[in-house]
User: Fold tRNA pseudouridine synthase D from Moorella mulderi DSM 14980.
Amino acid sequence: MKLKVIPEDFVVRELARLPVREKGLYRLYLLEKKGWNTIDLLMRLAKAHNLPYRLFAYGGLKDRHAHTFQYVTVKHAADLTTKEENFSLRSIGYMDRPMGPDLLEGNEFAITLRALGTVEVSRITRRVDEVRGFGYPNYYDDQRFGSMDRQMGLMAERLLKRHYNGSLQIYLTGIYPEEKKEARERKLFFREHWGDWATCLARAKTTMESRIFSLLAGKPKAYIEALQMIPGEELSLLFSAYQSFLFNELLRRILQDLGLDLVAVPGVAGPYLFYRRLERKELAYLKSLFLPLAASRMEFPDASTEQLFAAIMEERGIKRSSFNLRKVRQAFFKSTPREAVVFPGDFRLQPAEPDDLYPGRQKMRLFFKLPRGSYGTMLIKRLTMP
Assistant:
């Protein structure tokens, strides 16, 4: 099976409740893109129009390896409508507030699975009915953990343990899956020369690298001050990655604790465990289960879930109070509930047909809707698991 061979194989459209006005402080746009992630494209647009990036707001981050449609606001009167080969920004009205995640209801997906054999087609067809009846675990998928360094782990965990030096090292030297060769080599250089701040400063390229290494060259142990330089929005994404990691771990343990027959699919931050079917009691429990994202204050649905989370915290050497950071405060951990399992809406599967890109193989198209924050790629993992 092949996924995302071309951007049109993975189409995502935001579903939102937008308080659109004829006039307002915030101009509303529909952003259509391919080959760009949301933040990089908005930063490019901000630079092109000589505007501060903070004037741009969005509801969710969209994958670069897809054809996506999402809503963006800009707190600026001029019409920034733009059309280029791989993206377009089109003004569609105004709002009295910026775009944000709270306005999103979910996403609508149209996905093409390619290079399928006869056995795979039969398996996927059968599993669509299983998912309709029993849903699937609402894990955060691999793309959520792009900031995770394979050797050093997640930056936020080091920060919670007050390992300020290690946390800063992951931030500046962590190598991400899609890192370009030049950036990868530069980060390896920083890692090899960590502590020799003058040498690191001489190799620095980005503004943030230069600012932090310049600070450390003059104040060699100023790790906290350096961490305080990280922009709040960027730090918030790093915190979210760690909350997602802990959510996935808690959900895994709940499924194991229920004694379910589980199938493991590899993931960059731990395996994804899937059930095939559920008994009526298990289905009722999981369908009503909401799990809290990690923070100093959390509300658990039951005592057993809280005990499982406490065991995770103990294993990782973290206390609940650790999430209340006192020295790095430009972002914070906030607990919100997330569904443990998800049921795709308007879920339909087109019959298999010959694959125009892979002669002798077949392709299938899936159409479905998911609530905000749920991953279409996780559904694909469930449908194609061993």
Notes: The chain has a mean pLDDT of 96. Residues 146-233 form one domain. The first strand starts at residue 2 and ends at 3. The longest helix spans residues 232-257.
